[in-house]
Amino acid sequence: MSDWNGGTDGRFPSTRLSVIVAARSEDTGVRQQALDRIAAVYWKPVYKYIRLHWLKSKEDAQDLTQEFFARVIEKDFLAGYDPERARLRTFLRTCVDALVANEARAARRLKRGGGAAVLPLDFQLAEHELSPLAQSASGNPDELFEREWVRSLFSLAVEELQRACEKRGKLSHFRLFERYDLEDSEERRLSYRDLALEFGLEVTDVTNYLAYVRREFRRIALDLLREMTANEEEFRREARALFGVEAE
Amino acid sequence: MKWLSNEVLQRLRAAAARPDVSGTRYRLLEGLGRGGMGVVWLAEDSQLGRRVALKVLDLTEESSELEARLLREARILAQLEHPGIVPVHDVGILSDGRVFYAMKYVQGRRLDQYLTKIPGLFDRLRIFHRICEAVAFAHARGVLHRDLKPENIMVGAFGEALVMDWGVAKVLREIDAGGTRAEDEDAVSPDAPGVAARTGHGAVLGTPGYMAPEQARGGANQLDERADIYALGAILWFLITGSAPSESLTADIRRDAASRPAGLARGRNGIPRPLAAICAKALARDPAERYRRTEDLMADVARYLDGQPVTAYPENLLVRIRRLYLKHRTAVLLILTYLIVRVVLIFFHRQ
Question: Are B134 and B73 in a shared domain?
Answer without folding.
Answer: no
